[in-house]
Amino acid sequence: MVIALLFLLALLPAASATVAPNLHHRDACEDFASYATRPEGTPSKGPLGLPFMRPAPGCRTFNSTAVEKVVANLTSRMKDPDLARLFENTYTNTLDTTVKWFNDNLTFVVTGDIPAEWLRDSSNQFKVYIPLMAQDAPLQQLTRGVINLQARYITEYPYCNAFQPPQESGLPPECCSGDTGAAVSPPDDLSIVWTCGYELDSLLSFLQLSRRYYEFSKDMSIFAFDNGGWFSAVENVLQVIDEQIVPTYDAGGNVVSFYNISGPNQQYMKNNGRGPPKANTGLIGTTYRPSDDVVYFPYNIPHQAMAIVELRGLASLLKQVGLRPDIQAAATKRASSVEAALWKWGTVLTKDWGEVFAYEVDGFGGAAIQDDANVPSLVSIPYLGFVNATNPIYANTRKMVLSTAGNPYYGFGPVIRGVSSPHIDEKHVWPMGLITEVVTSTDDADILLKLEYLKNTTTGLGLMHESVNTHNVQDYTRPWL
User: Fold this and answer.
1) φ and ψ of 405, to 5 deg
2) Contacts with 421 (C-beta within 8 Å, 6 or more apart), sequence order
3) Which portions of this protein are annotated as coiled-coil regions (predicted)?
4) Is 33 domain-assigned?
5) Which residues, other chains included, contact 316 with Cβ-Cβ below 8 Å and sequence gap of 6+?
């Protein structure tokens, strides 16, 4: 799925599409998590001979004629057969394998091999199809269903990040959430919630998908579903942001906490689930990184950059449709205050790299000087839309975090080199991070090099792994991400 980011800007208008969605529970179809562990179809004609890894049409969870036309159009013009095969396998993967249930109004889409819907991931999974909305009515309806269900989840549990199937689906709650045995406040319900790790970027991803969906579809029905549930979700997003700007200590030295998570898992937060203390900065706190690891320091700077862009995007969206001037004003005001705080607290002067963006800060002087592979990341800041790649602080930051001397989580070896993550370990580079390098790069030679890494580290499967050992291509996590 993730390599589809490479081709976002290359999508071409498609002709009018008709779609025949499949039934979703075909006993004869192998689960893709096992299907993806071995090469399947006809190899490509390139030197790597990458296999065709799409399920048979009858086993795909949704079929879109518009998506198929994009694949045929692009792959027919690509000179590298292996890269064409990688695109063919991955761009279609969300629709082929992860749409577990939908009706006219709701869509439940899982995150790869995990039987739950993540807010951030479902947004990213569908974001690559957004330019096709005006050409493909069924795909538009499917995407609208993702937004409607996200809005419902956020209305019910705004601090949670991943969810079980909706009641209408008739699908039973899946077993064995990572939060089993956890103490969470505000309390959740594991028949509805899969995990309740508060991630600011998950809420922002909902705003981003909504904004981009309307941009390409002009469909206002998302604002009316569930008696205006979308606005309830947006109000909850703004409420969480207001709460997470509050510092740890009040004027009397009392500890203030709006969200706690603790339990037997090592990825729960310190200080009885409250996390590391945060100073009064005007930045927005978060608890988990996009990698699902807990933060070192509570103010993640890529999250702030995304918040500024998406809060302004929210105000712009509502202005276009002539709705909720109160939310427009609140979002605009908050975006401005967070931006001022980011420039005050979110940069660090280094000896070797000049002024750079920190990855995380606490306002007390603590700063994490590194990057992590998943978006939002420091490398992804131009992709997020905060500053462009020529911004001098971003340029310094990019040089630092994409170097062996500047980023403790920059793995390198004969197999692959790029940003790794403590979520796995320092020696496993994430192809997702390389894709982010590609979409933010202005250097053609660098882009070609990273594409070679991506093609040559699928271990013959023609699919993207989560991470790959820098010295052993056979040592990877997840055959399919």
Assistant:
1) -90, -20
2) 291, 293, 372, 373, 374, 409, 428, 430, 433, 467
3) none
4) yes
5) 211
Is the preceding peptide bond at 277 cis, omega within 30 degrees of 0? no
Assign residue 71 a region (left: φ > 0; alpha: ψ between -120 and 50; beta: otherwise): alpha
Cβ 206 vs Cβ 147: under 8 Å: yes
Is residue 163 classed as helix, strand or coil in its secondary structure?
A: strand
360: nearest Cα among 347, 351, 350 = 347
Nearest Cα residue to 298 out of 267, 333, 272, 274: 274
Residue type, 169: S
The pTM assigned to this predicted structure is: 0.94
Beta-strand ranges (E) seen in 88-208 are 99-102, 107-109, 117-118, 162-163, 183-185, 193-195
Question: Which of 400, 385, 314 has its CA nearest to residue 352?
Answer: 400
Q: What is the DSSP letter of 360?
A: E
Q: What is the DSSP string of 55-111?
A: PPGGG-S---HHHHHHHHHHHHH-S-HHHHHHHHHHHTHHHHHTEEEE-SS-EEE-B
* Tally of domains in the chain: 1
Measure the CA–CA gap between 132 and 253, rounded to whole angstroms. 53
Phi, psi angle pair for 354, to nearest 5°: 80, -155
pLDDT grade for 268, boundaries at 50, 70 and 90: confident
Give residue 112's pLDDT.
85
Quick check: 49 pLDDT over 90? yes
Strand partners of residue 183: 262
**How many C-alpha atoms does 75 have within 13 Å on its Cβ side?**
23
CA 322 to chain centre: 29
In contact, 330 and 338? CB cutoff 8 Å = no
Largest Cα–Cα distance in the chain? 70
Is residue 342 in some structural domain?
A: no
In a domain? residue 134? no
DSSP string, 237-272: HHHHHHHHHS-SB-TTS-B--S-EEESSSTTS-TTT
- What pLDDT was estimated at residue 132? 98
Burial class (CB in 10 A: 0-12, 13-18, 19+), 243: middle
Single out the residue of 425, 438, 433, 481 nearest to residue 458, CA to CA. 481
Q: Which residues form the domain of 12?
A: 1-97
Residue 64 lies in a domain: yes
